[in-house]
UniProtKB/TrEMBL annotation:
NCBIfam families: exoDNase_III, xth. The record marks 159 as: Transition state stabilizer. It comes from Corynebacterium otitidis ATCC 51513. Mg(2+) binds at residues 7, 34, 157, 159, 257-258. Its EC number is 3.1.11.2. This is Exodeoxyribonuclease III. Probably binds two magnesium or manganese ions per subunit.
Amino acid sequence: MRIATWNVNSVRSRASRIVDTLKRHDIDVLAMQETKTRDESFPYDAFAEEGYECAHVGYNQWNGVAICSRVGLSDVAEGFPGQPGFAKDPAAEQRVEARAVGATCGGVRLWSLYVPNGREVTDRHYAYKLSWLWRLGDYVAGELRREPGQRLAIMGDFNVAPRDEDAWNIEFFAGKTHATEPERAAFEALGEEAGLNEVSRQFTKKERFTYWDYQDLRFPRNEGVRIDFQLASPTLAKEATAGFVDVEERAAKGASDHAPVVVDYDLPPNFDDVR
């Protein structure tokens, strides 16, 4: 099974190139983030024509996540249990945002995640980001305790560069979000406490960046960061065999500022029948 994650930065404006990428790389399941549309405006038909079922969570023109699969799509979940909400006004209702969607595809439980940006370390959004990551970890750890051998993967735009090597210049992030110790600790806990394996890194050591800002010629200078990941349960991680970052897609005209991150999993034949 070939699974990809991609912050598409507007699914409606890039639907045709997303479909082209699915076909070019023969992708079975695509987790998308930052779709920037409501459910009723999501381009379901464009994907259905190519044999993909899609689950989407979008409440307005911000955020938005989706999973599109040609190997089955069931048990769709809108947000994970315990997912915190946010409002700029601390006295207002803290509403859950469109940042997580789960589904079972070909016997694998998948989550497409768009972790909050954090904005600035002095902003309430930063505390929200940390809470979001820790609660995600609590949920995943509980799921793997309940069923230790399950095939589960969480993937998406984590908005965290967990290692210094994950940024073209770590000094650029001094005093800024994405590389602070609290963010890195929350990310690392997904492995150390929740039990997940960061499977995408092992295949993408050369083309290690996944995001390049549109400003300041970041992409031509290869001034990027690695913030998009696939994290898999121990059972599924053992079946990861290959992967890549589609840097050529990022280089194309009109591309998203993120590149697709692709991983191949060698699952048992007729997995759904023997599970």
